[in-house]
Amino acid sequence: MSEQTNTIGHAIDRVDGRLKVMGHAKYAAEFANTDVVHAVLVQSTIAAGTILAIDALVARSMPGVIDVITAENAEKLHKAPEIQQAISFPLLQSNEVLFNGQHIAIVVADSLQQAQEAAATVVVRYRPQDAVTSMEGRDGDQRKPSKKLNGKFEIDSATGDFSSAFEAAPVKISATYKTPVEHHNPMEPHATIAAWSGDKLKVWTATQGISGTQQTLAGFFGLAENDVTVICPFVGGGFGSKGNTWTPVTLAAMAARHVKRRVKLEITREQMFFSNGYRPQTRQALKLAADRDGKLLALRHDGVIATAMPGAGEFAEPVALISRMLYACPNISTSHRLIDINQSLPTYMRGPGEASGSFALESGMDELAVALDMDPVALRMRNLIDSDASEGKPFASKPLAECYTKAAEAFGWSRRTPAPRSMKNGRMLVGMGMATTSYPTNRMKASAEVAMLQDGTVIVRCGTQDLGTGTYTTMAQVAAAELGVSPDRVRVELGDSRLPKAPVSGGSMTTASVLPAVQEAATAVREALFDMALKAKGDQWHNLDRTALTLDNGAVVGPNSQLGITDLLAQASLPSLSRKVEATPSDEADTFSRHAFGAQFAEVHVDPDFGTVRVKRWVGAFDVGRVINAKTARSQLIGGIVFGIGMALMEETRTDRASGRFANANIADYLIPVSADIPDINTIFVETGDPITTRLGVKGIGELPTVGAAAAIANAVYHATGKRIRDLPIRLDKVMA
Question: How many domains, in total, are found in the chain?
């Protein structure tokens, strides 16, 4: 294979980039602009109670209005399928109201404007009930989650004897850390177009999980999976908000069947705050104890998490999982408790569990370093561990020490003076902080089909989805490398449930799940071509070891001669040669704990008079396994760090305590970082490979760089000011308090 065709690791441009910048990439809402009617959702204005009546008489009489669907005339759905067991949202199945903003009616009209105008005339009478709109002051209402964390981890854990070890330890800290409600706000709001043909349903929808949406809709409407088709070739961001099949998707399908028309339902930016989850509010009590040399002796991490009322589902943010595995400590205790409140259901948000949990753990480690008068990096190096005590397994790979070393050197950590307020730039206080990052390298089974056409074009088919992370491109690169062609000769087809199945694009698992399937399918095509070539060459290649053959630039290349694939397939009267493969994690992989790691270093400047915080420099070194595309990988790392900067300094969804409604449900009042808030970000790849998880050696990295970012900033703010802020976001009022 020539260097030209072996593009693994290179920083090649996105194969879908030209489509996007020219406006030719079609997103969910853009598929049907003719023969479509429009649906608009009506939301509740109370947080708890019962709907007594919905007066839609005026709405139904307005021009263009087709119907108004409420719990009184809505289709009765089947029980939620197991794949969406956390989603049992009210889907117009009763008159019970569980949170402010709940979808309680659908107005369908010929045009969007007609539907919006009619929806504004709908009058609802309620019997309100007292609502729980905050978890503050409700410690007595804590309960254990009813399901395992992430479906597989125990709710609580205990190793050793925490209480005795903590009591006897010479150095210890105890603190409580808080994180607020945060919303995903991807560029593309949710949208669904639904069409029925008899008992077959087709939806074009913005989703991170083609197969999950297919299974969920089939379950709700009592259909066979193959009777539901889900189309989503491009996703304008998700960050976890499009990982589940949320209420609007199902309601769009319900409306389409009700009015017997193709229905388009587009969610407004404000409705996004009530319709598709968020990162839940947490309160985390952390206790750490060490000997005077910095060796951890005891660790306790107790998380209290807000969730929805039972009728709206349950989600438990697994904040303490990271504390179970990151550092060597003989006595670890963790717990998770929920408080039910009248808000919509929380969900996964970039770095779920670890992002919130690392703010507590890594801030606590910094506080312990101060108590020990010890360098924060040295403290972490002192407590490195080679195995995951929580699972009793060695790590498949863990170059964390290398991440610390490379990032610290690139950042200039040795120039840091440890005393708070000891570093200045003019009148600005300068702070340097750091934190560890880690996230599981998840993998699930996935299928892919690869076909080689007579003209040398390669087609890759997989029912996965590309959130903008570069999945189209990396799939093309892997197939190209295996088949000895340039990536521009590869056509990738994804975003369609009729294609070979793949898992949800969440948990940083797409690269590690889909690419092995593409690689194995391409390898199978290559080996079949070798078989055909050996047969075609007859005596010339008789008894030739097939390892002497390669594919390069559309030909099977052997000793002193080659055979073009076009001729090879033509001789066999084959227009193409294809293979479909299902790739599954190996049994060996289950004997290891699989995580990615990294080190985050931040420099902040704090105005001593106004308390404003600016992030001025950032260096992160990340254990990425093997890089497939250096450009898209760096983009993922930068994006995750930007996400973490927003989490640290800006993002907070505020709830009106009286009404239970999110008060800043827009992106003017819900603050997110803009370019002026972001410094130059230096990302360092630490490539050690992870052949245990995949033959490619890849690790998912989409969520890794968000984890630890908020703590690195909080630790830097402490170093700059001497003030320890344990309640996100870090606003100027908290700095000046």
Answer: 3
The separation between the first and the last C-alpha atoms of the chain, rounded to the nearest angstrom, is 63
Closest among 506, 445, 497 to 471, alpha carbons compared: 506
Question: What's the half-sphere exposure (Cβ side, CA atoms, 13 Å) at 478?
Answer: 31
Note whether 556 and 505 are same-domain residues: yes
CA 141/CA 599 separation, integer angstroms: 37
Q: Are 462 and 471 in contact (CB under 8 A)?
A: no
Q: Domain for residue 79, yes or no?
A: yes
> Measured between alpha carbons, how far is 94 from 50 in angstroms, rounded to an integer?
9
The residue written with tokens 């978890």 in the block is: 135
Closest CA to 116 of 333, 267, 256, 250: 267
Predicted local confidence at residue 690, as pLDDT = 78
Task: Tell me the C-alpha distance between 672 and 243, whole Å.
Answer: 21
Question: Facing residues of 387 across strands?
Answer: 394
**264, β-bridge pairs:** 38, 193
**What whole-number distance in Å separates Cα of residue 622 and Cα of residue 398?**
11
Half-sphere exposure of residue 656: CA atoms within 13 angstroms, side-chain side: 14
How many Å apart are CA 649 and CA 637, to the nearest integer? 19
**Residue 401: per-residue pLDDT:** 98
User: Residues 606, 717: contact at Cβ < 8 Å?
Assistant: yes
- Report pLDDT for 501: 97
The residues that are catalytic are 703
Tally of CB atoms within 10 A around 674: 10
Q: Are residues 375 and 235 in the same domain?
A: no
Residues 464 and 416 grouped into a single domain: no
The answer to whether the beta carbons of residues 481 and 7 sit under 8 Å apart is yes
Residue 542 has a pLDDT of: 77
Element (H, E) at 250: helix 247-259
Instruction: Return the structure tokens found at 581.
Output: 């493969």
Residue pair 47/97 in contact (Cβ under 8 Å)? The answer is yes
- CA-to-CA dists, residue 193 to 229, 249, 275, 499, 520, angstroms: 12, 9, 17, 20, 35
> Quick check: helix, strand or coil at residue 185?
coil
Contact status, residue 514 vs residue 694, Cβ threshold 8 Å: no
CATH code assigned at 229: 3.30.365.10
b or e along 308-330 (b: 16 or more beta carbons within 10 Å of the residue's beta carbon)? bbeebbbbbbbbbbbbbbbbebe
Q: Do 609 and 686 form a contact (C-beta atoms < 8 A)?
A: no
Q: Which of 108, 124, 146, 402 is nearest to 261 (CA)?
A: 108
**Residues 22 and 31: beta-carbon distance below 8 Å:** no
Using one digit for the tens of pLDDT, what is the confidence trace for 184-210?
999 999 999 999 999 999 999 999 999
Are 484 and 552 in the same domain?
yes
| Distance between CA atoms of residues 672 and 668, nearest Å | 9
Phi, psi of 364 (to 5 degrees): -65, -40
Contact 5, 526 (CB under 8 A): no
Nearest to 440 by CA among 668, 93, 142, 700: 700
Rg of the chain over Cα atoms, rounded to whole angstroms, equals 27
The answer to whether 484 and 550 are in contact (CB under 8 A) is yes
- Residue 48, classified by CB atoms within 10 Å of its CB into exposed (0-12), middle (13-18) or buried (19+), is buried
Tokens read off for 182: 């945060």
Q: For residue 521, how far is the Cα from the chain centroid? A: 26
* 112 and 212 in a common domain: yes
DSSP characters for 39-70?
A: EEEEE-SSSSEEEEEEE-HHHHHSTTEEEEE-
Q: Beta-strand (E) ranges in 426-575?
A: 428-440, 446-453, 458-461, 490-493, 550-551, 555-558, 561-564
Strand partners, 597: 438
Segments of the chain scoring below 50 in pLDDT? 3, 84-86
Residue 17: what pLDDT? Answer: 94
Q: Would you say 281 and 305 are in contact if contact means Cβ atoms under 8 Å apart?
A: yes
